[in-house]
Structures are given as C-alpha cells and as structure tokens.
C-alpha cells in the first residue's frame, strides 16, 4: 500500500492546501503552527519575511533550555589529571523522556540527554581522556555512540554499551581526532532513537603542541586561548521532527525550536570573525544544508583539518551525521540583519531559517 493511503495527510499536502486556502489552523502536535502572518513584536518586521515564520512564542522556561543559550554553552566536564599528567574530563549524561515544545503550541514527546535537545555540547581537547557516565532513566534501552576513535567496547551500539532502563554504563576513550563531531543513541530502530532527540555536539579542539606547523590555527580553535577568544563561536545542530509518525518531518530547525533565530536574531559583533560548528542530524531527509546571505565562507569538512576543505562558498550540504566548521566575517558589511537558512526551501518554511544581527 502506498504511503499516501496509509498516511493520507502529509506535510506536502498540507503545504499545498496552505497555499490554496491561506492560513492553517489545525490541531497542535500534528501540524506546525504556520500561518501567513508573523507574530507581533517579532524582529525582523513581518513585511521583510513575507509572513513566513511561526506565530506565537515557545515557552523556553518550560522546555528547560533555550536555543540561544545552546549556541554557546560548552560543557567542558569535570577536569582532573591522571597519573601521567594528562587532562581527564568527566561528564554525566542522563537519558530521560520529556515533552518539549518545538514550535508555538506544537509539543513533541522527546527522548533527551540531560533534558534538552540537542544534548549538552561536550567540548574537550585533542588527546584528553574522556569519561562519560551514562545513566538511562528513559523508557527504552539507549546508548551513546560517539563519532571518534575508540575501542569496540566503547562504541555504544546494541551488544556493546547499550543500557536498559534504570541501568548505567561508563564510556571511556581518548579524544581523537580533533574536529567537529557528534554523539547519538545507536539503539534500534535507529531512526526513531535518533529522531526522538538523542544526539548532541562533540567538539574536540586541536592541541597546538601536536601541530607545530599550524600552531596559530590550532590555538584559534582551542577554547581558553586568547586567539580563540577573538572569535564568536556557535553550535548549530540541524534537526527535524516528525510529529505525526509518517516518516516525514513537520518541523525543521537549528537547535530544535522552529524559526527561533528568525524571531530573535543572533547578535554578532561585525568586527570579530564568526565560527559555526554545524552538524546535521536530520532524520528522514537524505540531505540538509546551510546557506549564508550576502557573504561567503570557508568550510572545514568534519573540522578535522586546519586548512579549509572548501573556500569561498555560500552554501554547504551535509548528509545525516556529516558536520563541519564554517568561518566568515561581516566586518566590511553595513550593520543589519543577514539571513541564513537551509537551501531546501521547504525546510525554511517549516522552521529552518534565522538571522544574524550585525552590530556597528
Ligand atoms: Cu535510544
């Protein structure tokens, strides 16, 4: 039987209906809160957007996380030294079920790491010993599978590091290679466990002592250095949500909440360069992308090199779990609102669009 007969109302049909009929007012949890008018008080003004954002406000306090904080809240762990003098970073991650609001009035029964989607952004330095104490307080078996170099025992897949509800496991490995990585649950069915919200960014900064020929570039990446402090760094996890179980996403976003950076633009100091750790975890669609307006950027695929793998581009695409680092500057631009979005334009209308607001 075709999927059309099993799920006669798809988001594409809804969009088609929306175009024909005007504003939609369908029941929450099944449909995004899209409309042809923009919410009051939101920036930028509605006439500049053509009324393409969600209407109303998400209660970030109720969610327990705010996508604006997620942009920059690095979790560097509890730091100690081992007997060899090496830095050890310990993290606590708890899986739990939690309903979250992903667009105004649209609630999603998520599975979360530490109560948020995406989970905490773990940030370590190349060569650190990483210890992750994982407890599963959710309703299903879960794992944490890290993208990185580690032993089979630490791989976080069924049969190796999978944790039943109520159980726990300690993942331990060296942080390698440096780059922009991710972690996610690897229990089956995999697409459901990932799509429910069990993922997060895992950033390994380069250790400049290991890169004598590119020390300056390495230091600019490593949190805590003066070179790094000159940058404005943001984590952007591109995700989507299937609210009606039809294996298609009804809502798309960066860091979970539809249009959150359109309605509250990300302020940037245009004199300082910008670095984005971009990660795609979107389920059900083979590709996602990032497009920057009125500017071009350099891109480091997987973040595992200190020289760009793409130069002077304004769009980059990523398959699921692909990620990379984007670097650009607005120093020669006039102050204003500069848009960024997926260049799958359907995703834009369903939540994946935002603005940088450059200050003089
Ligand atoms: Cu899981």
Instruction: Look at the structure and name the CATH superfamily.
Output: Cupredoxins -  blue copper proteins
CATH topology: Immunoglobulin-like
Radius of gyration, taken over Cα atoms and rounded to an integer in Å: 20 Å
Which CATH class applies here?
Answer: Mainly Beta
Please give the largest β-sheet.
6 strands, mixed
Secondary structural class: alpha+beta
Fraction of helical residues: 10-25%
Mean pLDDT: 89
- Strand arrangement across the biggest beta sheet: 12-11-14-19-16-17
What is the general shape? globular
Number of domains: 1
Distinct ligands, ions and cofactors found in the model: copper (II) ion
- Span between N and C termini? 58 Å
Spans of at least 5 consecutive residues whose pLDDT stays below 50 are 1-9, 12-42
Beta content comes to: 35-45%
Number of DSSP-assigned strands: 21
Description of the molecule:
This protein has 360 residues and is of the alpha+beta class. The protein has one domain: Cupredoxins -  blue copper proteins (Immunoglobulin-like, Sandwich), CATH 2.60.40. Helix content is 15%, strand content 36%. It has ten helices and 21 strands. The strands form four sheets. The chain has a six-stranded mixed beta sheet with strand order 12-11-14-19-16-17, with no helix packed on it. It has a five-stranded mixed beta sheet with strand order 1-5-10-9-7, with no helix packed on it. A hairpin with a 2-residue loop joins β3 (87-103) and β4. The longest helix is centred in the N-terminal third of the chain and has 11 residues, at 11-21. It starts with a helix and ends with a strand. The structure holds copper (II) ion. Copper (II) ion (CU) binds at residues 140, 142, 185, 187, 193, 198.
